[in-house]
Specification:
Its cofactor is heme. The protein is mainly α. The chain has helices at 13-29, 39-55, 64-80, 83-86, 107-113, 125-149, 158-168, 179-210, 212-225, 241-253, and strands at residues 269-271, 274-276. The chain is 56% helix and 2% strand. The chain has a two-stranded antiparallel sheet. Strand 1 (269-271) and strand 2 (274-276) form a beta hairpin. The longest helix has 32 residues, at 179-210. The chain is globular.
């Protein structure tokens, strides 16, 4: 069971993205060309795509349940990016190249190495863990709603597929398909997909504002390849070489997850005219 199933079901991931893109355009039109901060609306867009995949339906941007979910995700991201997670307590700020030693011994990493002591150690990790529990409760509520109307022969979203698989393996004592895992899968999708996608979109907007000549070329390619009478689709990707290059350049520019798993070459690498030292 994978997310690829949604390319074969009633509604594919692409259709869900297209629907949300139209809602984004409508929200931007409401600004009537006035200066606006797109941070919140871009977060709503990326979060809503995940909601649509998981829960079948999207939320309106002013829906109370959706705003509650957004607040949890935003607070979680804020806490993870506060100084206590970036360096040791009382350690002065320092440039990235000076953080290679003690500065990168993040508190969260220490807590993960000593899970038995997490309940006794001070820090914002307690609030982060509480938020994760609230996120799991939010997802469990939706799961219970799905269980009431589940049709295993006609799954509509990720939770339907998962619950159908749970039914198939209900007699398997070793199964990994249980309620705890579906909750954690949902939390992983929200945590990994909402902020990363919205930050990339926001940074992309910033870059094309800084480079209007790039913006003009993107618009020209869109008008040439797509026009004004239909929605863009994944099929257009092969014909929109410039747009694809811009997307890759945005991802090259942005320092999206600077403290993820470290990457380095383990020997000197020669690539074209470049040398990557060990």
């Amino acid at each position: 069971m994978t997310l690829r199933n949604f390319g074969m079901g009633k509604r594919s991931v692409e259709e869900r993205v297209q629907e949300e893109a139209q809602c984004l355009v409508e929200e931007l039109r409401k600004t009537k060309g006035q200066p606006t901060d797109p941070t919140f609306i871009l977060s709503c867009v990326s979060c809503n795509v995940i909601c649509s995949i998981l829960f079948r339906d999207r939320f309106k941007y002013d829906d109370e349940k959706f705003l509650y979910l957004m607040n949890l995700l935003n607070e979680n991201f804020r806490l993870v990016n506060e100084p206590w997670t970036q360096r040791k307590h009382n350690e002065p700020c320092c440039p990235p190249y000076e953080r290679e030693g003690n500065g990168l011994k993040m508190c969260m990493s220490l807590y993960n190495f000593l899970p038995a002591f997490r309940a006794y150690l001070p820090g914002e990790h307690k609030r982060i863990l509480k938020i994760n529990e609230e996120l799991k409760d939010f997802i469990l509520e939706r799961v219970k709603e799905h269980q009431k109307v589940l049709d295993p022969n006609n799954p509509q979203d990720y939770i339907d597929y998962y619950l159908s698989k749970m039914q198939q393996e209900k007699d398997n004592a070793q199964t990994e398909f249980d309620l705890e895992n579906v909750k954690m899968t949902g939390v992983d999708l929200f945590s990994a997909g909402t902020e990363t996608s919205s930050s990339t979109l926001r940074y992309g907007l910033l870059l094309i504002l800084k480079y209007p000549e790039v913006q003009a070329k993107i618009l020209e390619e869109i008008e040439c390849m797509i026009g004004h009478n239909r929605l863009p689709s994944i099929r257009d990707r092969q014909d929109m070489q410039y747009m694809g290059a811009v997307v890759h350049e945005v991802q090259r520019f942005i320092d999206l997850v600077p403290l993820n798993i470290p990457h380095a070459v383990n020997r000197d690498i020669h690539f074209q005219q470049y040398i990557h030292p060990k």
